[in-house]
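Q: what sequence does this backbone want?
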């Protein structure tokens, strides 16, 4: 498996400023895909809240076909953030940087970077980032920030 790509940015170190800007892209049905962000506490129930947030945006943008993959990806990324034990809030965001990409971003207060491991057959955990890697066809990555990190994952939008 190839390593994830870094998300380039040259903005100030403020959490919202590290969420990549996106042009408003039409979702095909005349709807505009306005970027959206939600702040969530570091609690296990935030994983379900992140899924509801992402699926609601997909429905709003007419991209229901991505719901299963996006739910798995955001679940894995927010679960990893919840496990950091940070006491601040994590941010989950969605963007449409192009008409062919749906981007999920999760930022948290931990500087520990995500590492994809080769989980053994008997392992009870450790497969999450491999799943993200597979679902995004390797189009995911992370960037360290002064306050923590931001992880992004891109899902392809079928025409």
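A:
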């Amino acid at each position: 498996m190839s390593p994830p790509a870094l998300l380039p940015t040259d903005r100030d170190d403020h959490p919202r400023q590290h969420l990549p800007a996106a042009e408003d892209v039409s979702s095909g049905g005349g709807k505009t895909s306005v970027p959206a962000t939600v702040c969530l506490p570091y609690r296990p129930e935030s994983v379900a809240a992140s899924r509801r947030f992402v699926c609601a945006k997909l429905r709003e943008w007419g991209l229901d076909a991505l719901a299963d993959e996006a739910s798995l990806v955001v679940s894995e990324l927010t679960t990893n953030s919840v496990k950091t034990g940070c006491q601040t809030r994590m941010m989950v965001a969605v963007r449409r940087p192009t008409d062919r990409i749906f981007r999920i971003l999760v930022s948290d207060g931990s500087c520990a970077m995500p590492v994809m491991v080769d989980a053994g057959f008997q392992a009870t955990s450790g497969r999450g980032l491999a799943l993200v890697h597979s679902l995004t066809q390797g189009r995911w990555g992370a960037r360290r920030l002064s306050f923590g990190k931001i992880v992004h994952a891109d899902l392809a939008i079928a025409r």
